[in-house]
Write a structure and sequence with these properties.
The chain is α+β, with helices and mostly antiparallel strands. The chain is about 15% helix and about 25% strand. It contains eight helices and 25 strands. The strands form four sheets. Strands 10, 11, 12, 13, 14, 16, 18, 19, 20, 21, 22, 23, 24 and 25 form a 14-stranded mixed beta sheet that branches. Strand 4 and strand 5 form a beta hairpin. Helix 2 packs parallel to helix 4, helix 3 packs parallel to helix 5 and helix 6 runs parallel beside helix 7. It is globular.
């Protein structure tokens, strides 16, 4: 029997009822705080639970006086119905924020309900915090206490604060190997982590201990909940979330490979919009996002700005939800349609938001966190050219408007951060990529994957051709890892971290290359 297509209008009504329980918290009366070092209170008269904190804890989206705290209760994370083995009832979850890792100097606390409607996930927007401070937090449900997490607030607006140690990551395929790179990143104790997409993968597959659950391509809300939960059971990912606040954006595999807005890949799939609504809802439930990102049916606004005092503005983009469909059947080719000025990778509203934000910024560094390769990347030797239609090369006018915007809005230190391609790259951004001698207007730092692509090797097949054809590319590496940065008023240093294997756990980490960018002087310097 044919499936009736579902419309965007029909799905918009699915928002508030299915949204994750969320609480906004500020100061509580002094008498409501437990005494220093005392246990959190226990409540409830039903059958006691086993430990429900199997998925860890997280924080995210900090500002100078608040941060989001997250957890989800689950007794059996891989239960097929997506409900984590929890009884279908509300549970009271207590939370605390303290100034010390021993949780003796508690400064905020409260209680929130975890409900079946949200698969017992909770988000708390803790307010009334001090700027530029390190905090610690934990949760309790009945007699069980979670691990203790570390989070931070941003500097006071208009001030620089301390140098910022920020790491960024992408492409963590559970079935592709062990998440050792997350563990090594956590050991560095960054103050901020950006995840640039492909947090989960939607396909089946895997071998040994790293088989995806469910063991199929996922489609339903239950499927997406189980898949996210499986990833969150990984101890290395839990450690990475617990060490610092995260700022997350998605790419395609959080839903489906290479989709574009409301167009699945391949086109014509029945039920794609229902699948999109399910994937977006599960993503929100599992991420430390603010209430401004609560999904409305098939829509979820994830582009947003994180201000790190006067040091840096993080302009986080969504290059998947609003894009025109990939040109020329999503090939790697010399595609004339890629030059069409009507095509957009961001959509007009988000593009205006970005350019307006760049124009208003008074930060030393304007960091654009996004998903797919921004600079030009020609894959064919000689005068012939071929480009990936899934990257900004497939949306040339979109990219040029951003590059022109740097000049028109006097953006002196733009830095584009990218994931997606499972390789480390370091690129100069040119005013005109067709002219290698044109002015360098910014830099792009591309992180390799956490696991996607397997063990990898230092230099990929065909890598020299890419360097020869694209002289603005200064580094190409095909190992797994992440990028660590230190951002100061004068410089941004990027260390490209690599691990030699992911097929077995416990790999060591090393720095493959380091680059610096000097404030006011766009361009990469090998350090």
């Amino acid at each position: 029997m044919p499936v009736t297509p579902i419309t965007r209008r029909k799905l918009l009504v699915a928002s508030a009822a299915g949204a994750t329980v969320i609480a906004a918290a500020g100061s509580l009366p002094a008498g409501s705080l437990p005494a220093a070092g005392s246990p959190m209170p226990v409540g409830g008269s039903h059958q006691p639970l086993p430990d429900p904190f199997t998925l860890g804890i997280a924080s995210g989206d900090p500002d100078y006086q608040s941060v989001v705290l997250w957890t989800r209760l689950a007794l059996d994370p891989l239960a097929a119905d997506g409900m984590g083995g929890m009884p279908s009832r509300r549970y009271q979850v207590q939370w605390q924020v303290a100034l010390d890792p021993g949780m003796r100097r508690v400064v905020r606390s409260g209680v929130v309900s975890a409900t079946p409607e949200s698969a017992h996930a909770v988000h708390i927007e803790v307010r009334g915090l001090l700027p530029g401070r390190e905090y610690y937090y934990r949760f309790r449900c009945e007699r069980h206490v979670s691990a203790i997490g570390r989070t931070l607030t941003t500097p006071l607006p208009g001030t620089y604060g301390s140098p910022l140690d920020m790491a960024f990551v992408s492409c963590s395929n559970y079935s592709g190997g062990y998440f050792t790179a997350y563990k090594r990143m956590a050991e560095e104790h960054p103050s901020l982590v950006l995840h640039l997409g492909d947090y989960i993968y939607e396909g089946g597959g895997g071998t040994g201990e790293r088989v995806h659950s469910p063991a199929k391509e996922i489609w339903t809300l239950a499927d997406y909940r189980v898949r996210h939960a499986q990833y969150r059971t990984d101890p290395d990912l839990q450690a990475a979330h617990a060490v610092a606040p995260w700022v997350v954006v998605w790419d395609d595999h959080e839903l489906e490979n290479n989709y574009a807005d409301e167009i699945p890949s391949p086109a014509g799939q029945a039920g794609f919009l229902e699948r999109r609504a399910a994937a977006y809802r599960a993503y929100y439930e599992m991420m430390p996002l603010r209430r401004s990102s609560i999904p409305r049916g098939i829509d979820l606004q994830i582009y947003r700005r994180i201000q790190w005092g006067r040091l840096a503005s993080f302009h986080m983009l969504d290059t998947r939800q609003y894009r025109s469909d990939q040109a020329c059947n999503d090939t790697t080719s010399d595609c004339p349609a890629a030059l069409d000025p009507a095509r957009s990778i961001t959509g007009p509203a988000q593009e205006k938001w970005l350019l307006d934000g760049l124009g208003r910024s008074s930060s030393t560094w304007d960091v654009i966190g996004q998903q797919v390769f921004f600079g030009a990347r020609d894959f064919t030797a000689g005068p012939a050219v071929s480009y990936s239609m899934d990257a900004w090369d497939g949306y040339v006018a979109s990219r040029q408007r951003i590059l022109d915007g740097f000049r028109q809005r006097h953006v002196t230190n733009p830095v584009v951060l990218t994931g997606d391609v499972h390789k480390h790259y370091a690129n100069d951004l040119k005013a005109d990529f067709r002219d290698p001698s044109s002015r360098t207007v910014g830099v792009e730092l591309v992180t390799t994957s956490i696991t996607s692509g397997g063990d990898g090797q230092d230099f990929p097949s065909g890598g020299q051709l890419q360097l020869d054809e694209n002289p603005h590319i200064k580094l190409l590496n095909n190992q797994r890892g992440y990028v660590s940065t230190r951002i100061t008023r004068d410089t941004l240093q990027a260390d490209f971290k690599v691990i030699p294997y992911v097929s077995t756990p416990g790999a060591p980490v090393s720095t493959r290359a380091s680059f610096t960018v000097e404030a006011g002087r766009p361009g990469l310097n090998l350090s």
